[in-house]
């Protein structure tokens, strides 16, 4: 039996695991949440027996518990062939996935200043799996790497150039693994060659970002130095006027408070006063809740403006692609967004849109649309599994 591939995604208080076989079929996924709190818990998808975790369990404790449970179930009966880790920030150091040796790990640590909530927990996950599996090749796949092809005109802020030179202040972009997957999957569905396919991809989940991908490479994206810039998100504001900081400081709002508000109390939640969850807001709006209707309106209008903005980086457009929990499931958001872009020639087929493109190879555009519009379920774990195996095999030629 061939060894499987383990995919690890450590968030600030959560841990997701997935196991793939060598043919890239997902065998199992598991989730640990509320780590480092008294309510820490783990769950293996479709498992009958619960797995217990001690209160306050760390990422490492949860990882060990899950790996033991998967071993007992025969899914990780032998050591994996490769382990792939999602790492949020690779700065300008990483332009692609990297085999994790001591130098790469140190470089990820050096990027931690740019993602202080994420890179340290990613490193904790890497340290734990290295201890558990010292002889298995481990690979990092970065959220930022796919966007390292942005030209300076797209990644530079109009700030004093020393900010970039001395402090690495620039736009990095995130969700790169998802945007990469969408560009390849769109090319496949449309029967095109990835290296000559140009798309606009909108990843709309709890976090939201959009990318212009020209001839297979990312040339612009909406997230910036941090994942706060750009679109309206579940609890994040997206773009605001930087003049806000000074104005609110005058009102006694500290930088730390504003950081918290912009990241955790804004976006759909802030506007609706009810929920960060688009599905709930659509239901509330249907029952006449005006603030929810307004939140959806702001969300769709900002998204429409960004779709227009992404056009500036393209000379051709093979498809507009939607993904993420909202992008894959909300016909209302897609319809409402594109209703602002009639001038550009996007037209949806109401029935195909309603069915989320499920029976039409992802296509939801109508016959008279100027551009194809697709819905594609994203699969970042699959990309991480593929990259992990690819680099592991390169490092250990048979
Ligand atoms: P994700 O982070 O990709 O899991 O996406 C989460 C978001 O997708 C939440 O805002 C959900 O409410 C939203 N979502 C999932 N299903 C639907 C749906 N059927 N309609 C509208 N939004 C949805």
From TrEMBL:
Pathway: Metabolic intermediate biosynthesis; acetyl-CoA biosynthesis; acetyl-CoA from acetate: step 1/2. The active site is at residue 143. Its EC number is 2.7.2.1. The keyword NADP does not apply. InterPro entries: Ac/propionate_kinase (IPR004372), Aliphatic_acid_kin_short-chain (IPR000890), Aliphatic_acid_kinase_CS (IPR023865), ATPase_NBD (IPR043129). Mg(2+). Can also accept Mn(2+). One of its GO terms (molecular function) is acetate kinase activity. Mg(2+) binds at residues 9, 380. Keywords: ATP-binding, Cytoplasm, Kinase, Magnesium, Metal-binding, Nucleotide-binding, Transferase. Homodimer. This is Acetate kinase. It comes from Marinobacter albus. The lineage of its organism: Bacteria, Pseudomonadati, Pseudomonadota, Gammaproteobacteria, Pseudomonadales. The gene is ackA.
């Amino acid at each position: 039996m061939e060894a499987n591939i383990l995919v690890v995604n450590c968030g600030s208080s959560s841990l997701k695991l997935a196991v793939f076989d060598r043919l890239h079929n997902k065998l199992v996924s598991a989730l640990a949440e509320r780590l480092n709190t008294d309510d820490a818990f783990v769950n293996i998808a479709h498992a009958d027996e619960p797995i217990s975790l001690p209160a306050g369990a760390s990422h490492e404790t949860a990882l060990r518990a899950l790996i033991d449970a998967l071993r007992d179930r025969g899914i990780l009966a032998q050591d994996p062939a490769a382990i792939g880790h999602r790492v949020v920030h690779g700065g300008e150091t990483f332009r692609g996935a990297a085999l994790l040796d001591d130098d790469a790990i140190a470089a990820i640590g050096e990027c931690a200043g740019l993602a202080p909530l994420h890179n340290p927990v990613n490193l904790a996950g890497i340290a734990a799996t290295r201890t558990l599996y010292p002889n298995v090749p481990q690979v990092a796949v970065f959220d930022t790497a796919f966007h390292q092809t942005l030209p300076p005109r797209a990644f530079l802020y109009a700030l004093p150039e020393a900010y970039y030179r001395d402090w690495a202040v620039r736009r990095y972009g995130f969700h790169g693994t998802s945007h990469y997957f969408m560009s390849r999957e769109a090319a496949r569905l449309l029967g095109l060659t990835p290296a000559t396919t140009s798309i606009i991809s909108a990843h709309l989940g709890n976090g939201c970002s959009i990318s212009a991908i020209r001839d297979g490479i990312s040339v612009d994206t909406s997230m910036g130095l941090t994942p706060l810039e750009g679109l309206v998100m579940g609890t994040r504001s997206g773009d605001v006027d930087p003049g806000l900081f000074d104005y609110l400081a005058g009102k006694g709002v500290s930088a730390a408070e504003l950081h918290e508000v912009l990241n955790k109390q804004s976006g759909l939640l802030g506007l609706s006063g009810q929920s960060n969850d688009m599905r709930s807001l659509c239901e509330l709006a249907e029952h006449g809740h005006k603030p929810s209707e307004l939140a959806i309106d702001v969300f769709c209008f900002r998204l429409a403006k960004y779709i227009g903005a992404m056009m500036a980086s393209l000379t051709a457009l093979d498809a507009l692609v939607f993904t993420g929990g909202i992008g894959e499931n909300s016909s209302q958001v897609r319809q409402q967004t594109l209703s602002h872009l009639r001038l550009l020639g996007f037209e949806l087929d109401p029935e195909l849109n309603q069915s989320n493109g499920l029976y039409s190879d992802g296509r939801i555009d109508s016959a008279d649309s100027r551009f194809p519009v697709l819905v594609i379920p994203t699969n970042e774990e699959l990309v991480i599994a593929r990259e992990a195996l690819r680099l592991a095999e390169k490092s250990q030629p048979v």
